[in-house]
Write a structure and sequence with these properties.
The protein has 288 residues and is α+β, with helices and mostly antiparallel strands. Helices cover 16% and strands 36% of the residues. Helix 2 packs antiparallel against helix 5. The longest helix has 13 residues. The model has no long low-confidence stretch (mean pLDDT 94).
């Protein structure tokens, strides 16, 4: 297990303060200046799971209200909205500095039987045909300010292989269809709940970038004022995040300073594991 993987798994282990009150670490995620959205979602889901027995999350819906401060912990308050015969519902509020930074509803379902069908996995080259995130970042190292190089090259826990990567600093305009492979080797020993938490964390990676592609934009171009506004996940099939998964993303609409993005996550053998939707802020940055 790498140090980055250990840090991520530690982030998902919350401290119980009271029956339905938990504390999570703010630092250590994908981004240094504010808490990575996938981290808050995964921790909120972890808090909800600590109040549920013998049921797995089938869907969650979250709103990002304020940027998270990585310098301090996050408090998660769980409301046991309903314990029904088939479904359990939880509401979770994430708090920092006495204010909400996220609220989330999550629903948990007992195992059930029904009919089955799914859309097939898109046909793209296997992950070994694409460069790693580390290799791509080394390519751009000469264009990164010296003070940012250590953060730029910092080891991350999720291994990522983009199918059609664009130039990080001056991307050309491209189709909004966006594909990446991802996995985390240390998930090999994770239980079912932790697998859900890891996928929830990773589901915020690359999604908002789909809406940037048709406009030739990048997080590194300095033109964008962007952030996740809301995020929803539907879990469909068992997760084994130690194995490669394909994240198939698209942005059917961008306008009015917002971008709507959706994605499907498939295991490499073709099973549709989860569906994701997210709207994000995407407007021109005003110089100050």
């Amino acid at each position: 297990m790498t140090e980055a993987e250990r840090v991520l798994l530690d982030l998902l282990s919350l401290e119980r303060l009271e029956v339905d009150l938990f504390r999570g670490t703010g630092s250590g995620g994908e981004t240094p200046t504010r808490i990575f959205g996938g981290q808050v979602i995964a921790q909120a889901l972890a808090a909800a799971y600590r109040t549920v027995e013998n049921r797995l999350c089938h869907s969650l819906h979250a709103y990002f209200i304020r940027p998270g401060d990585p310098a301090i912990p996050v408090i998660y308050q769980v409301d046991r909205a309903r314990d029904g015969g088939s479904f359990t519902t939880r509401r979770v509020v994430a708090i920092q500095h006495g204010k909400q930074i996220l609220n989330m509803s999550a629903s948990f379902h007992k195992q059930d039987e029904g009919w089955d069908h799914q859309h097939p996995i898109p046909v793209v080259d296997a992950p070994e045909h694409h460069p790693s995130r580390d290799d791509l970042r080394q390519k751009y190292l000469g264009r990164v300010p010296e003070k940012l190089k250590s953060e730029f090259l910092r080891e991350r826990p999720i291994e990522v292989r983009e199918v059609d990567p664009l130039d990080l600093f001056s991307p050309s305009k491209a189709d909004d269809k966006n594909y990446l492979w991802f996995r985390m080797g240390a998930a090999n020993h994770a239980d079912t709940i932790t697998q859900h938490l890891l996928l929830a964390y990773a589901s915020d990676m690359g999604l908002l970038s789909s809406g940037m592609r048709p406009h030739g934009l990048s997080w590194f171009s300095g033109e964008i004022d962007g952030a996740s506004l809301d995020h929803a996940i539907w879990f469909h099939a068992p997760v084994r995040f130690q194995d490669w998964h394909l994240y198939s993303m698209e942005a059917p609409w961008t306008g009015q300073g917002r971008s709507f993005n959706r994605g499907s996550i498939y295991s490499q053998d073709g099973s549709l594991v989860a569906s994701v939707a997210q709207e994000g802020l995407l407007r021109r940055r005003i110089p100050r």
